[in-house]
Design goal:
mainly beta; about 10% helix; Porin; about 375 residues
Length: about 375
Amino acid sequence: MHSYAAGAKFGELSSGRRFDLFLRYRFEGYPSDRVPESLAGMRPRESGIDAGFSAQAGGGWGIAYAELLHDISEISRGSELRFGYKYPFRRGRLWLQPQAMLGFRDANLNNYYYGVRPGEATPLRPAYSAGSGAMTQLGLYGAYRLTERWRLIGGVTWVRWPDVVALSPVVESRVQRGVTLGLMYDISPDHQAWPEHRPLIARAYYGASSDCNVTHIMRLVCTSTHTRDQTSIAALEVGRPFIERLNRWPLDFAGFVGLARHKEAGFQPDFYQINAYIKAYYYGFPWDSHVRTRVGLGIGLAYARGIPLMEVRDLADRGRPTSRLLNTFDPTVDVSVGDLLGARSLRDTYVGLGVAHRSGIFGSSRLLGNVSGGSNYIYGYLETTF
């Protein structure tokens, strides 16, 4: 799981081959906060979600791969076939990976993002239909180990778009350059966090919409539900533990993916939402030996097939755009069912309350559509480990 993708891998590159199935966010799309003059009056082009399959083969000579991507969010309905090569290597504290990629993009993909519809045409921006074409990308990514935990990471990329994209009246240059720079802290434990066969976590919840602010709900200042509408949410999620007792603190980390169903009470058809997030659990309370009590906080991404009524109403009032992809913030509190009932077999089963929160991080993220606002659902849940 990455910040922009989630999936499953089969095999290990150390043995020569690996196959991946995944969902990946496609970053193409129009800006929603500062729209350039060349795009003025055009309907926004949204980012989408691709389903993909990749095959990789590796050895001392590097890694070669092929990927097939198709838009399943029904945004562009486009497809792309990629072939690439990368060569990762280390020199002391430095890790580098040069790479090259050739992508064959179909007409649906190119025309959605770079075409101009007849109704959007102006004297300076004629109608344009982009066909299929091939693009090339060269890149260099690196990481430098500053300390045992801190890493400096960065990369540079160079992209050459095909003629069918470069000739579009909304494209300024055929060549696109990019630079990234960041700082990363590694929280991997020094000891083996879990046995080889890690347990599976399953959780199910059902909740009701709330117009309370998420921080007010967490402080129990406001806990009302269904005050302006009767919408609700139900979800089933599965996860794996990542780290147990980080640095020997009473702090665990787990990763979850799940499917939620928004029940829109007749306002619009019900729709599904995909969640993917990392969650921390703290359980260092004085009464832990009697009744284990956990406070949890999950942070990740939520992609909804539609826009929940709460967000439509809230963001319309503010005159802000909506987005299918938003940050998810999942604060919870629960207790062990086994400790409550005196049943050791149920000690890893928990019952609790939480908040399913979607937001755009105060309009600060283009990835999330510069959304400022969101939705909250107060829910009850059951979680167990197998």
